[in-house]
Design brief:
With about 160 residues, this protein is mainly β. It contains no helices and 12 strands. It has a single domain, classed as Porin (Beta Barrel). The radius of gyration is 21 Å and the shape is elongated.
Length: about 160
């Protein structure tokens, strides 16, 4: 857009396998959960403004917005001490999440075509669509969350053509 500003696009992919987690208690007994594999991919676009754009070391601020697409997340809940198992319980539905954030960072030009950078800033992600698979169990509020704040730190190596 000019020497002091740019529009950018970024992408992400995340995959995680779960182990058994203790997620609470029922009548004083451990409540465990086994979740399915979690997958997420997304895209963000933003605007970055550089201060001292004509210098090799440039501070910048940025605004970011995007979408993340999350796979459904079924789970198995168990209370081993009581021999109770709830299999294949819908926990979260596949969802499209909004992402919003701001960054503060710097870029250091190693040459005309290569720059090293570091940035951080708060990110907010909306929550996934919860399902009522736990209706009637007394555990209904367990999936009433999912939105989150994070503070990613990103190192970058940029190549200009």
């Amino acid at each position: 857009m000019g020497p002091a500003s740019e529009v950018f696009l970024g992408g992400s992919y995340y995959k995680m396998k779960f182990e058994t987690l203790q997620v609470g208690t029922v009548a004083g007994l451990a409540l465990n959960a086994d979740f399915a594999e979690y997958k997420e991919w997304g895209a963000e676009r933003g605007y970055r403004y550089y201060f001292r754009a004509d210098k090799p070391f440039k501070l910048y601020v940025a605004a970011v917005a995007g979408l993340r697409f999350v796979s459904e997340l079924p789970s198995t809940f168990s209370v081993p001490a009581a021999g109770v198992v709830l299999s294949d319980v819908p926990f979260y539905d596949s969802s499209t999440l909004g992402v919003f954030g701001a960054n503060l960072g710097f870029s250091f030009d190693l040459s005309r075509s290569v720059a090293l950078g570091l940035e951080t800033g708060p990110r907010y992600q909306t929550g996934p669509s919860d399902l009522e698979g736990l209706a009637g169990t007394g555990l209904e509020p367990i999936n009433d969350t999912g939105s989150r704040w994070s503070m990613p730190v990103v190192a970058s190596l940029r190549f200009r053509f």
